[in-house]
Design goal:
By secondary structure, this protein is α/β, with parallel strands linked by helices. Helix content is 37%, strand content 24%. The protein contains 9 helices and 10 strands. Helix 4 runs parallel beside helix 6 and helix 5 (121-130) runs antiparallel to helix 6.
Length: 259
């Protein structure tokens, strides 16, 4: 890609998912998924097990190629611009891989050197401290708890300062206190302009995303802000993920029954 092509396409959204379908054999894991995302949004991807959340995140990151449809970052198709996409977008999977022979600190060093970062040490220490890992930076990740391993992978991703961060079930392996702390940090990154798209079955008490994408059986069945979805589904009071998901599924079943 030339220097001119590296410039962001004028007026193109950060992320555009257009009619994406993904099939495992005869089974549709995703069906005609479409949405856009702009800078500085914290978006929660919500759905039951098997709804297609992880598959959608992998397609966006370029780890998996859709059967049909198109995904673009700044107007550039993901499938044709892998290097460009990786410069702007990082996926942290639900079970991050690590090198057994490298310590946590050496993993941070590896990421920094792979991206040609100089003077990375202070930023790495700040991230590890912020996520409660600094005291264990010389330990090997295989000695960490599952939650600590996820936070290390998150620190490695944040060291690169991606424009968009994709997180697959980041809250699942965390205890309630750690989940609250992570939510505070994610909001801090969002306030700094980062776009965050995370899948989750749960959020900390009183925590709300800027926007929810609700999935069921591979389809996005609702998309909107908390206020939008309260109005759409006639919900009052606090908005839990359970209430939101149940309301969206009831609405979908009702629409199907009257089709």
């Amino acid at each position: 890609m030339s220097s001119d092509e590296n410039e962001k396409v004028q007026d193109a959204p950060l992320l555009a998912v257009n009619g994406v379908t993904y099939r495992y054999g005869s089974l549709n894991a995703l069906t005609n998924a479409s949405f856009t995302a702009e800078a500085g949004q914290l978006i929660a991807l919500v759905g039951r097990n098997g709804a297609g959340k992880s598959t959608l995140l992998k397609c966006i990151a370029g780890w998996t190629q859709p059967t049909d449809g198109d995904i673009q970052v700044h107007g550039y198709p993901v499938v044709k611009n892998e290097r460009y996409v990786r410069e702007h977008l990082i996926l942290v999977p639900d079970t991050p891989p690590f090198y057994d022979e490298l310590t946590a600190w050496e993993h941070m060093q590896f990421v920094a050197q792979a991206h040609g970062w100089r003077g990375w040490e202070d930023d790495a220490e700040d991230l590890l401290s912020r996520y409660g890992l600094l005291a264990n930076k010389e330990a090997f990740p295989f000695t960490y708890s599952r939650g600590m391993r996820y936070k290390l992978a998150l620190c490695m991703a944040l060291l690169v300062e991606p424009e968009m961060l994709l997180l697959d079930e980041p809250l699942g392996p965390l205890d309630p206190v750690s989940a609250d702390e992570l939510w505070v940090q994610l909001n801090r990154h969002r306030n700094d302009g980062m776009t965050i798209l995370l899948s989750s079955h749960q959020l900390p008490a009183d925590a709300h995303a800027d926007r929810y994408l609700i999935m069921e059986q591979g389809e996005i069945i609702a998309d909107g802000s908390p206020d939008d979805l309260r109005a759409t589904f006639s919900l009052n009071g606090s908005l839990s993920l359970d209430d939101l998901l149940r309301a969206a599924i009831r609405a979908r079943r009702g629409d199907a029954a009257h089709a």
